[in-house]
Amino acid sequence: MKKIISNLFVVIALSAPSFAMDSAISGDYLEVRTSDVYTGPCFANSEVNLVGKEAILAWRVRQGHWKGMPLKGLSVVAVITASATLGDPFATPLPTQSMIAVDERAGPMQRKALVNLAQSMGGELVQDIVSVKTTSITVELDAQRQAAVLIVGDIASVRTRGLNHEDHLCGNEEIYYPPLTEIKKYNPAYTLEHQFRGEGLKTTWSNPNKRSAFVGAFER
Description:
There is one protein chain. The protein has helices spanning 2-23, 41-47, 108-122, and strands at residues 25-33, 38-39, 54-66, 69-70, 75-81, 97-103, 129-135, 137-142, 147-152, 156-161, 174-175, 185-196, 205-206, 210-219. A hairpin with a 2-residue loop joins β3 and β4. The protein has one domain (26-215). The chain is 20% helix and 41% strand. It is of the alpha+beta class. Residues 1-22 have low confidence and may be disordered.
């Protein structure tokens, strides 16, 4: 009996690292909003409840598995519309609606895993999904320079650069609105292009030239 229990412990010990490896996932993250996220209170107060009710979140997997599916090299994007300025501590953004774009290179089960990954990372903001689109997704990201390019088929496009001295307009800017999701590390960035042209959310937008993005990394 003791030998059987001992052998069972060995089997569990040997299988544990494999399970952990299948559960680990990490990669690049891009978030862009329709309000400044790096700003001063004076600018934020002029925008609250007027703008900032839309966001695009993108995850590009560099390595790892999710729900048992290998997702290395694949991407998923969530486009969100909310009822209030996202990140406002005095108003709930709920209810929200979202459209999910999944990488066309993914297989059927991988697509399901990508949607689940976006829901898990986005939390309550990405629960009411109105549509899921399979399309080409291009993500180019340089976290050191906060430079990113996101092209989601003919649905959405984003381009950012790092902040510079000319982007400090009032002298007391800070990260006024933190990222909407759990991410490992991030920096605010300046948004040069931010367009959503998709269907299903009852709105489209073009919102460039704002201090409205985060470029970083995620890990779960």
